[in-house]
User: Which sequence fits this backbone?
């Protein structure tokens, strides 16, 4: 009976490995396709810039200065539109690359390929622990590294504490087993949590520092709304557009500079505030 169960488990494991390998191959095909599309968008963006400059120069030399400025404006609009779609492709490419890494890591865990497993936050064995060294709980080739799928340093440290200090209360053990049983079949859910956690973390090969995030969340943030500034930017941009159009059509003075310069100053100020707030959480 034991041998039959062992053979069945081995067959199930082999099936799961083949299924994940097929997933990895499909993901790699999507990555190759997205990479081609991204390269194509890069060439299109370069072509728009070069083409707009060349056409604007030709039109300007022919004496139609207003049309030349219109060509430049049209080129900027086209460039921004293409850049927006290009950003979407790049985001999809990044998602697929992370998804491939997640699935490849699953394969490495199942096949015990230690060199392909991400390092755990606790890779050094605790010699003072009564059974850590004997059972290989922590370390380079350890149970912790095999089980550690966390995306934060705190999660990895907690798993290490759980393994090194197992529960002895039957009620707590059953409660934890119940949670594990509920999460075990939710493979796709767990993988998507990992995916979104790694997408929001710039350093794809490292873990979130939970203490830094908690410190950032507990900071007293200025609660003033940005809505008035956004409204002001909208008014300034509309004013600039109207004044510039009138300047080109009926040759009024270049008053559009008086609305364009404050727009740039306010925009850069808001950008620096936003970068400072969100950058401190990284």
Assistant:
């Amino acid at each position: 009976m034991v041998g039959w169960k062992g053979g069945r488990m081995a067959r199930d494991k082999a099936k799961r490995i083949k299924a994940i390998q097929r997933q990895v191959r499909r993901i790699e095909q999507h990555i190759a396709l997205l990479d081609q599309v991204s390269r194509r968008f890069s060439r299109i963006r370069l072509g728009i810039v070069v083409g707009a400059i060349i056409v604007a120069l030709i039109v300007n030399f022919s004496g139609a200065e207003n049309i030349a400025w219109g060509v430049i404006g049209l080129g900027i609009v086209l460039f921004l539109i293409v850049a927006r779609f290009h950003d979407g492709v790049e985001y999809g490419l990044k998602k697929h690359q992370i998804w491939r890494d997640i699935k490849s890591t699953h394969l490495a865990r199942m096949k015990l390929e230690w060199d392909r497993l991400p390092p755990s936050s606790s890779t050094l064995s605790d010699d003072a622990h009564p059974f850590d060294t004997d059972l290989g709980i922590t370390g380079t080739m350890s149970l912790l590294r095999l089980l550690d799928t966390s995306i934060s340093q705190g999660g990895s440290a907690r798993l290490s504490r759980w393994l090194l200090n197992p529960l002895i209360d039957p009620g707590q053990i059953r409660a934890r087993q119940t949670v594990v049983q509920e999460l075990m079949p939710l493979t796709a859910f767990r993988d998507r949590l990992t995916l979104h956690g790694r997408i929001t973390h710039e350093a794809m090969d490292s873990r979130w520092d939970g203490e830094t995030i908690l410190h950032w969340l507990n900071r007293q943030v200025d609660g003033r709304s940005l809505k008035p500034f956004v409204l002001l930017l909208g008014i300034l941009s509309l004013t600039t557009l109207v004044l510039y159009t009138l300047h080109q059509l009926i040759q009024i003075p270049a008053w559009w500079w008086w609305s364009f310069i404050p727009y740039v100053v306010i925009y850069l100020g808001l950008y620096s505030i936003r970068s400072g707030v969100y950058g401190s959480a990284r």
Observations:
- The mean pLDDT is 82.
- The longest helix spans residues 2-61.
- The radius of gyration is 28 Å.
